[in-house]
Amino acid sequence: MTKTPDNIFCGAFLDRLDAWLAGEFDGDHMQAHHDSCESCRREMRLAREIGAIATALPELRGPDIRVPTAQELRPAQSVLARLRGTWLQPLVLVPAFALVLAAVLVVQLREPRATAIDPDIVIIDGVEYTREEIQKAAADLELALRYIDKYGNYPAQVISAELEESHLPLPEPQARSEAPPTI
Amino acid sequence: MKKYLFPFVLHAVLGLYAPTASAGEPSAGTPGYLPLDKLFVGNQQPTVEITLDGPVLKMLLQLPAQLDQDDEDLQNVSDMLRVVDHIYVRIYKVDADQQADMLSLIDDTSQTLEGQDWQRIVRVREEDDSNVDIHVKLSDDGESLNGLAIMAVEDKPGDELEFVVVNIVGNFNPAYLANIGNRMDIDYLDGVEVP
After folding, report:
1. Nearest Cβ partner of B124 from A129, A147, A181?
2. What is the span of the domain harbouring residue B183?
């Protein structure tokens, strides 16, 4: 620590340097110490350079300091409450609900159900018919139609015989006995 | 013994015994219906038993692809299914020595049916061949048929006979016979007009 002839120490000079550079006071003793002390002159140049750099930088704005309201000054929430709060946020809740709904629909659609388009079960007027029942009914109908066709030929023979008889001369009694069976 | 069964059989056929009709099965009073299951009560069971009633016929009508028919026959079958309510077929295998009994059964039943306003349209009696009676039951207005009954006895290879009973119940036009004839390629019936 050097005390210059103007009766000021380097420490006091450095303490008052920023204010002196800002022009807050006009101190002859500060100028005298500056002129006589090489170390303080170096400190002063450094201070001026720093000040010039700081002046050249754009003005920095600090964050707005907001004083929390009393409502915000609640006690810390529990983990469960924080999780619930997180899930209740729309950005989380809506996609989660959609995902769960899609999963339920997929499971429902993949479950085997009896529908009208199921190849093994046909529903007609609320009555279920299995494939076996349908095949049996179709086979029964086909067999019934065969018998109906077989014996339905007889009415056709009878009517045709009557038509022939009505348009032709009456046959001889011997020929009538050989005619197709009649009623 | 069988002759003693005939009165019971006739009563059963005529519906004098109340049948235990299930749901959808016509009662004895249904026009055109014969309670065929009573024909051989206590005697013999049919070897072929076909019962196609309303719901099954309706199902078949809506499933034409199930029928192994070409398009023309399929149309005929569909037309028939629309007007028919019940189709019954019973086939019995009987011994050849029972032919007289079967013919007697057919004759007695035919006479009784005619007494109940059934009309016999076919009667065939051929030795060693087919014996067929076909009856129709006209509707009250006489414009359509409520029933068609076929009773037939045919010789089969061996010493067996086949006794066939067919009953169709519904409300169908007499031209239905023409439809049958068309399936059998009987040209004489093609000109029959459908009212």
Report:
1. A181
2. 2-189
